Structure formats: structure tokens, C-alpha cells
Amino acid sequence: MSTLLAIFRIGAFFAAGPILGATFITGPVRAGLALIMALIIQPLIPAVPAIDPLSIQMLVVIGQEIMMGVAMAFVVQLLFQMFVLAGQAIAMQAGLGFANMVDPSNGVSVPVVSQFYLMMVTLLWLTLGGHLVMIQVLVDSFTVQPIGNIQNLVQGMALLPELGSWLFAGALLIALPAIAAMLIVNLAFGIMTRTAPQLNVFALGFPFTLLCGLLAMYIGLDGFLPRFEVFAAEALGYVREVMSGRDG
């Protein structure tokens, strides 16, 4: 019984989380991985009291497990979407907002800057072993958040709305250097337009702004890894808070 219920939490985590939750990974693949993982960690899952499989109580417990898996995966998704949002802000300021491409993980069109940041975050996440840490956290969740413990689930879900400020603050912090550089460039062209109205600011300003935006992105890559490590550590901390139902 415990293995069967664990599949729902693990499967929901895989379906809602990054990488494995991408649209190009089919449902049977995620379901198979959830089944394999549930069988492997079965000795670590606390025993669950006997529940009638056809009862309303079983449906409630299944819903709780799905919500728990989705909540934990949602926090990790916020980490990835933080860099996507930062890329969108930079693209709009640098004149690259019109250059969109399809994001294979979500199936929507995003600016190329966001897609570039998303690919870097994904590679860093895998390189630093973030997927292994999340598997460990998922295994620990069955001990910290036992199957059917609705009190901790409600407390953990209540923490999710508070992460919206973390998402936007982190995205602004990532994009702030490039946005500040673009602001200085735009102010400079504004002064040039006032002092020399005969200059064609549209023909001259757009390529120069684009070049400065790419240069600002290149310079900003020097601090990309430290920022990612800080935000990844914060995301894992939030995952544990949601998992345990405690604030801090």
C-alpha cells in the first residue's frame, strides 16, 4: 500500500518539476521512472495504515500525495523560471524581445535570451548534482511528511504564495546590471537626440543598443554561477520548508 501511494507523490513531482516535466518527455516514461523509484525506496517508506482501496479516504490520501509532489516541484520550477523572467527583462531592454523561439520544456515561445539562460541553468543544475539532491529530498519527504499527514501538508502549501516575491526579486537581481547598462545607453541617446536632432536615432540607436545588450550579457556571465548557487541553495531550503510544513 505504501509503495502504491508513494508512486503518486513521486509521479506528481516528476510531472510538475523541471527537466523530467518537459513536454518532450512522455507520460509513460515518467510513470515508469516513478514506479522504479518507488520500488527502490520502498524499505525507507514508513508503513501506512490499511485503507480500503475503493473508499473516499483512499481518494483523499491520493490527492494529498499528488499535491505534496506538485508543491515540492513547484518551488524548483520557480528557480528555473526566475532566470527565464530575468532573460525576458533583459531582452526587452536590449531590443531582443522580438526574437522568440519555442521552449521545448514548456511548449511556448520565449525570447532567445530566456532560452539561453534556461539552457545554462539546466546544465548547471545537472552538473552540480541538483537532480540528485532533489531525489534525496524526495526520499526524505516520506519520513518528514508521512503519507496522509494533512496538517503538515496544509502548512507547507501555505508557504507557496510567499515565494512569489522571491521569484520577482531574484529575477530583478539577475537582470539589474544589464537593465542599468541599457538605461545608461538610452539616456545617452536621449541626450544626443536633444543636442543633435538631425541624427537618425532609430537607425543608429537600435544596433548600438543591441550590441551593448549583448556585451552586458557577456560581462554578466562572470557572476552567473555564484548567483545560481545562491538561488539554488535558497530553493532547496524552501523545498524543505514546504516539505516539513515549517516557516524557516
From TrEMBL:
Q: Where in the cell is it found?
A: Cell membrane; Bacterial flagellum basal body
Q: What is its main location?
A: membrane
What UniProt keywords are attached to this protein's entry?
A: Bacterial flagellum, Cell membrane, Cell projection, Cilium, Flagellum, Membrane, Transmembrane, Transmembrane helix
Has UniProt tagged this entry with the keyword Transmembrane helix?
yes
A single GO cellular-component term from the record reads:
plasma membrane
Q: What does this protein do?
A: Role in flagellar biosynthesis.
Q: Extract the NCBIfam families matched here.
A: fliR
Q: What is this protein called?
A: Flagellar biosynthetic protein FliR
Q: Whose protein is this, by species?
A: Litorivicinus lipolyticus
Query: Taxonomically, what lineage is the organism?
Result: Bacteria, Pseudomonadati, Pseudomonadota, Gammaproteobacteria, Oceanospirillales
